[in-house]
């Protein structure tokens, strides 16, 4: 057999030598690669190579650069190219969540010894070879302990602030003592206020009559002087200051020695009003002397309080509601203005924690349209502390009597600066309504409302309120540090309602200058020894 391959490599011949000619010819076809096939191949490679490059770069950033061979790189890239990714990290996270759920469902053992810091926890974990569950349990116990300590600290802070707000600063106490001593020894401090020839002005309705009920001498001075300094017609101003018996001598001495001419000031003690008898104010007598009420306001504020289910803000509101001032007769006197000032037709009542920054004479020109009380409504603002108050913020609507007679969405209003039409007031039963609801709240053991004199006034003046522009009366300077300073500068009256009064150390420093600037003016006007007394002179020998 012979094998013959042609030179062109295109045919193969096989022949036999056995006498017979066996011939087999095999043709091999030529292999051609077309240009179209080559173009498609190059196009596919051009499309795939960028993806391979990007994937290689990602793997390199994740640590492939640590590989020292193509084999290592292949082991990393292979599963990715085939769509299989290592999910060990996801499994670890799932296992971690499972452990956390288990730890959250278990009780923390009693008497467990907890490390004092996270570093100590890590150190103990390394030394004692804690497993993940033990580590999570220890971490949870530490966090819960920290949360308890923070809550206790917050409640302690609120209690201390409550005591600070309810106390009398030493400077004010000394001022009252010194002025009382001055009243007894100095004839000028006892001179009649106002002088006899000005007595008819006290009932002259052509003047602008302000009423202030307070036992804080310095605060009263700020209110009176700020009103006079801001007025365009100070000679038309008459201030009627009502105080208690123990403060009367000091209050009288202050304004006798520091006149605010050309304005007129009258100082009267509650004991000098013939109308304020037990027969006329029986409910207030009960409020001041009721043992349960006095214990509520003066007793242990933590007794019976479940702090574990109480938020700090709720606790702060409850503390504020237990301020002793709310059972003071001075705080309730505003409901008796028509009887205490029978000859006056229209007055502006001011709290002692306000500062007047603008002329208030236009208030007497406001038409109340037959209403009794011109007040700023407190339900149309954005802040949650002061200007977003409705009846539901003051009353317990789970009480059937409250739910029957009141609307929780009704807008509240503010005390602090109010225009009272006393002539219209005398035609109403506001005082009787006020007494009725005070009695009902006493019968219910204070379950209808907790906070002071405003809730019964909200009911008594229901239907008798005329809203005035909020720019007349800006509230909240004793509550919140985020008070808008520019708005405060523009307000006619700024009100430090809340615990952080400007004469207390807990007052907000950036809001205090609105109040203290009046002291500077008093100092420049000649009351230097009194101002120095408040801010520095000691009173051990008084």
Automatic annotation (TrEMBL):
Molecular function in Gene Ontology: polygalacturonate 4-alpha-galacturonosyltransferase activity
Bilayer topology annotation: Single-pass type II membrane protein
Keywords from the named record: Cell wall biogenesis/degradation, Glycosyltransferase, Golgi apparatus, Membrane, Transferase, Transmembrane, Transmembrane helix
SUPFAM superfamilies to which the protein is assigned, alphabetical: Nucleotide-diphospho-sugar transferases
GO cellular component: Golgi membrane
Pathway in which this enzyme or protein is active: Glycan metabolism; pectin biosynthesis
Spans through the membrane: 37-61, 518-537
Top-level class of the enzyme under EC nomenclature: transferase
PANTHER family according to UniProt: GALACTURONOSYLTRANSFERASE 13-RELATED, GALACTURONOSYLTRANSFERASE 4-RELATED
Family listed: Belongs to the glycosyltransferase 8 family.
Protein name: Hexosyltransferase
